[in-house]
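Please fill in the sequence for the structure shown.

STRUCTURE ENCODING:
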């Protein structure tokens, strides 16, 4: 037997994706050195390029590990390998060594910007280590962690083009930055107490300096029941003690927030578990590098104030994601004031406004909201709210995709023309797309005021500049009253395309799943409000839609029966009025004794019924969200709301505790119209028979899942057994999503649900971009 020496080969490798600013080159260097390969690695406009030379076995092992062991923050989209002629050993510098070479400007594809990343274990260990030079330093970071997107001013992503430009590196930091074997090699935001940003506390016109003094003062204000504005990664937060009613009540009042839940930050997983039920997917989401707010089921004996999330079964928890946040929960040596055990950490703004991120603006707008301000001198270039996720069907699904996720790209299954899509009116995001990539912006909030409109312009310009997109297509929602719809007309934007709301929802989930559009899907788009048109072109509010859709168009093959909704938006805050409208429209006899009617005042009840009978002042709506409102009120769960979807959230919570003991079924006409009449009558009969509210709420969810299956079957009769896509804000309901998926799968359908963009209007811009950009390309 003869042993043949393994052949020496040389490859050129180009890696594309999120591979800059994430420690990719040091990783390649380590890997190649370990395997005894020679060559070099560098950055260019399109990603990372490298050449490696060695035995074919070692090179094979190198290529495998290149993808599988890539740094945690890297997103490898594409690895292109080509053969090169082997270079002679002993000639040139790359004969036996592996080097990191300087960046090449180049013109390739746009560089991908990484999102902001939570403090890594190694940095946290330094911050906790009394002999480390970064002991208790609130701005420690490295290649694996720290701010990214929020500090970038322009590209290429290099320190001088970030808000770290103002902080020249000290000699020690400069040495770390220049050493390929160091964890901080080319970490652009690298800093230490000698050269980096510093903390200050502003209170009653006084300015306090020094990390320990500032943190001791913060602990003091929180311990005394006050509120501190804290400048974080993507903006200012307002923080107060979450374990006591009084500070939480005061903050709620100052913010003008109604009953809308506050998110909490807790120091660790153990504390999170004392407050809420934390399953494996919740635990993974809480500890993920994006560190979102995770909606968890609250424990009845949670050691926090009930006013944090009044009446809400869910509580939003997050773990510290910057050294400053970790330090908020640690005692200050020698201060004697204990740190808080859990804090409300809500965005720094009054209700309906945008998050504060500029220091001067924050001093003005937060003056009446906070008793003190804990700030620092590193500028935030792009504001970014905390992300929110909820586990549905065993998987964390974004409810708000912002810090930690934006601006990661969504890889598109089809090629699109350069496009800007403006999303919806609430939970707005914009999406910039070109070729096979879409970049969804951070959460911009509700476009109800001029300030948000300015923000929208800023974000659009930034994204187009960063990704080198010259838009040829501008996509907007069809709703003529949406601010972005009007702006696009006033400004005469080129390539203007109007996209139907629910079509965009379905396209977003299709794009996420990589569907190339050669075959349509059966789309169930259930939400609160979206602009649609009736058979004669008259405007309707849609929201319970069954569509057969692809990227080029859709056919509405079914929908929830239309309800004449009296008074439009006024009714939305009063589920009892919607219930009364349903009773009147469906002519369900109650002798005025239903819980919904009893919750209305006499005038309200009479006026709503009359409006529905005459059809005056009513807008027809097929909204599934309104049906949830009506059911919540009919069951006596919630009659008036102070934040969006409050009634539906409480209805789901009740249902989660119940059993479907009282079977209910929607009617389904030959035209695909879902009739909720039998369900509503069944609920009232159930109440009369003494069936529990929880059981009836549960039965309602089962009935709706059954209605989805019946609608899908009906659609399949003519369109074929296509996959069923679920989208729209109603599918944030974890119980409904799980039931619906299982029922559909049991019937032989394959089911597509959201994974990386929200089912609500936060995901709308992606769907619009694909529809409008695909049509043009
Ligand atoms: Zn780190
Ligand atoms: Zn330094």
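FILLED IN BY: designer on duty
SEQUENCE:
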């Amino acid at each position: 037997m003869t042993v043949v020496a393994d052949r020496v080969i040389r490859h050129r490798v180009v890696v594309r994706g999120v591979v800059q600013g994430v420690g990719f080159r040091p990783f390649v260097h380590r890997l190649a050195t370990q395997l005894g390969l020679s060559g070099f690695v560098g950055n260019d406009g399109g990603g990372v390029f490298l050449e490696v030379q060695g035995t074919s076995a070692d090179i094979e092992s190198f290529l495998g590990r290149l993808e599988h062991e890539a740094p945690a923050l890297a997103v490898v989209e594409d690895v292109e390998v080509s053969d090169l002629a082997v270079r002679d050993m002993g000639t040139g510098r790359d004969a036996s060594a592996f080097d990191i070479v300087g960046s090449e400007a180049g013109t390739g594809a746009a560089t991908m910007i990484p999102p902001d990343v939570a403090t890594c274990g190694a940095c946290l260990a330094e911050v906790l280590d009394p002999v480390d030079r970064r002991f208790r330093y609130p701005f420690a970071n490295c290649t694996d962690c720290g701010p990214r997107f929020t500090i970038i001013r322009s590209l290429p992503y290099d320190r001088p083009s970030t808000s770290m430009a103002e902080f020249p590196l000290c000699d020690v930091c400069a040495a770390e930055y220049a050493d390929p074997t160091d964890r901080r090699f080319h970490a652009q935001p690298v800093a230490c107490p000698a050269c980096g940003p510093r903390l200050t506390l502003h209170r009653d016109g006084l300015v306090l300096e020094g990390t320990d003094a500032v943190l001791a003062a913060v602990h003091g204000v929180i311990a005394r029941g006050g509120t501190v504005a804290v400048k974080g990664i993507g903006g200012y937060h307002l923080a107060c003690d979450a374990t006591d009613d009084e500070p939480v009540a005061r903050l709620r009042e100052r913010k003008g927030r109604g009953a809308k839940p506050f998110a909490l930050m807790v120091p660790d997983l153990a504390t999170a578990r004392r407050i809420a039920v934390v399953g494996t997917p919740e635990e993974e989401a809480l500890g993920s590098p994006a560190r979102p707010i995770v909606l968890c089921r609250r424990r009845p004996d949670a050691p926090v104030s009930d006013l944090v999330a009044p009446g809400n079964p869910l509580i939003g928890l997050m773990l510290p994601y910057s050294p400053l946040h970790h330090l908020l929960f640690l005692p200050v040596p020698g201060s004697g004031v204990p740190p808080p055990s859990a804090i409300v950490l809500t965005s720094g703004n009054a209700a309906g406004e945008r998050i504060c991120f500029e220091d001067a603006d924050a001093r003005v707008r937060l003056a009446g909201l906070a008793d003190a301000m804990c700030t620092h001198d590193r500028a935030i270039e792009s504001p970014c709210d905390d992300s929110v996720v909820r586990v549905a069907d065993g998987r964390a699904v974004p409810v708000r995709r912002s810090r930690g996720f934006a601006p990661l790209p969504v890889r598109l299954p089809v090629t699109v023309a350069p496009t800007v899509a403006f999303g919806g009116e609430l939970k707005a995001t914009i999406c910039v797309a070109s070729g096979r990539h879409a970049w969804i912006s951070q959460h911009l909030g509700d476009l109800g005021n001029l300030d948000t409109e300015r923000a929208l312009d800023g974000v659009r310009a930034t994204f187009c500049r960063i990704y080198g997109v010259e838009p040829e297509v501008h996509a907007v929602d069809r709703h003529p009253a949406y601010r972005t719809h009007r702006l696009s007309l006033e400004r005469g934007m080129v390539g203007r395309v109007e996209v139907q709301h629910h079509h965009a929802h379905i396209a977003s989930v299709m794009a996420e799943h990589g569907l190339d559009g050669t075959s349509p899907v059966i789309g169930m788009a259930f939400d609160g409000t979206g602009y649609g048109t009736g058979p004669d072109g008259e405007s309707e509010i849609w929201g319970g839609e069954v569509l057969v859709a692809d990227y080029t168009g859709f056919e509405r093959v079914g929908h929830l029966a239309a309800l004449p909704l009296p008074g439009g938006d006024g009714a939305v805050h009063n589920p009892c009025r919607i219930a009364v409208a349903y009773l009147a429209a469906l002519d369900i006899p109650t002798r005025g004794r239903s819980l919904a009617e009893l919750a209305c005042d006499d005038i309200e009840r009479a006026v709503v019924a009359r409006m529905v009978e005459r059809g005056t002042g009513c807008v027809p709506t097929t909204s599934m969200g309104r049906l949830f409102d009506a059911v919540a009120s009919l069951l006596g769960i919630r009659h008036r709301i102070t934040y969006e979807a409050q009634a539906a959230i409480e209805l789901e919570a009740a249902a989660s505790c119940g059993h479907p003991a009282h079977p209910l079924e929607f009617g389904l006409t030959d035209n695909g119209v879902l009739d909720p009449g039998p369900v509503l009558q069944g609920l009232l009969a159930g109440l009369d028979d003494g069936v529990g509210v929880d059981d009836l709420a549960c039965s309602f969810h089962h009935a709706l899942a059954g209605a989805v299956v019946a609608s899908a079957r009906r659609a399949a009769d003519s369109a074929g057994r296509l996959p069923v896509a679920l989208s729209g804000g109603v599918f944030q309901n974890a119980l409904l999503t799980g039931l619906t998926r299982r029922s559909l799968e049991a019937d032989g359908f394959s089911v597509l649900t959201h994974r990386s963009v929200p089912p609500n209007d936060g995901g709308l811009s992606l769907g619009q971009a694909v529809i409008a950009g695909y049509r043009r390309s």
